[in-house]
Amino acid sequence: MIMILQGRLLEGRVEDSLKGIGLSLRRLGLLGHLRHDPGISFSALARRAGIKVQSLHPIIDALISDGYVATVGSGGQGRAAVIELTDRGVKVLERATQLIADYDHEVFAEDEWKDLGTALTRLEEALWRERMASSGGVTAPAAPPVAGRPSRG
């Protein structure tokens, strides 16, 4: 229960800092997926994000309005339109990654919090290796996408 409560507290703080640059964790996650898989289709992006395509469309429309993503192709004749990051999207993603890295450093810099950060990083890397082994490593990037912290593997 402590992890759940602390996680919610930390998540709220990150959400607040992301709001300052016009993002949310959900939007940040979508931009991250687009960076790691340029040209992904709406349906594949929705699956990755764990939401329905119908729920994804308004979020993507907002990201398009903000100039963070663009659709490529018409999606006509049985072909799906794909979504790509714009230069502005890359810049806001880099800024968000830096905000989170700064926050991680601030929170996990000392004492027990530093130990917790190290333990969580190791756990994430172990889970990533497990996922890679079970999927054959074919569709995943070479390193876990740890926002703001390099792999310690």
Automatic annotation (TrEMBL):
GO biological process: response to stress
Annotated SMART domains: HTH_MARR
Segments forming domain HTH marR-type: 1-125
MF (Gene Ontology): DNA-binding transcription factor activity
SUPFAM superfamilies xrefs: Winged helix' DNA-binding domain (SSF46785)
Segments for region (Disordered): 134-153
Pfam families (UniProt xref): MarR_2
Name of protein: MarR family transcriptional regulator
Organism, as annotated: Streptomyces malaysiensis subsp. samsunensis
